[in-house]
Amino acid sequence: MKLGGTTNLLKQTYAEWSEDKGPRLGAALAYYAIFSIPPLMMIAIAAIGFLYSGNVIERLQAQLATLVGAETAKTLMTGVQMSSYKGGWIAGLIGLAVLLFGASGVFAELQDALNVIWGVKPKDEGLKGLVKGRFTSFTMVLGTCFLLLVSLVIGAVVAAMTERFSSWFPGGPVIGHLLELMTSFLVITLLFAMIFKILPDVKIGWNDVWVGAVVTALLFTMGKFAIGMYIGKAGIGSAYGAAGSIVILITWVYYSAQILFFGAEFTQVFAKTHGSRV
Description:
Layout: H1 3-19, H2 22-51, H3 56-68, H4 70-83, H5 89-118, H6 126-168, H7 172-198, H8 206-234, H9 236-239, H10 244-273
Helix pairs in contact: 1-10, 2-4, 2-5, 2-6, 2-10, 3-4, 4-10, 5-6, 5-10, 6-7, 7-8, 8-10
């Protein structure tokens, strides 16, 4: 694709993002995320704990710290641990159902936002549409847990390789850091591909999905550092006292949502102009 074509593609993407009111969609998603992230983390910890022998909570907290800061990550994981309930199996099943429903809320809102971006309406209305939508959201919850598991396992392998490389030659830590970046980029790309392919009520070609997922992952990888710098420089956490961690989390989700929605707009513009022309 020529430079002029890329420029026009980005201009059209920005125009579509503005027309679809990306900031408003991001605000709604951030609101739902506050109620969905804790149960999602609880499900992830429980599911991954069955298959992964390492310290899940510590590793998840370390990954969260790279995104929202150490203090916010610690507060979030502490809340998740305090919310864990150990009761009978009936209460456990009821609790699991409540957690699944709560965790799926953010994906249900994300699905609505992506339908706005693609300019489509849900194929099924009423109760059938609600059940189908929630089932899709549950699928996304499980898929996210699986990707977290993959990320943790690969992270553990990379850490072991880095330690081994360090004993062989001085450049070992650099190689380990590059492997961590590549792993993170791969997992993020897979997550965005899953979101773009499964959630919207429209059939999107895989070529368009992968182009959009890679572009969005690049934007997210660059953007997360910018978001982290903004949150750190703006002093958002200290300005709100005890509620600072929640405000930081909302801010991070909001700006991350803007990147996601811009990537989704790019995907739909690319599909209509260069791809499958949905």
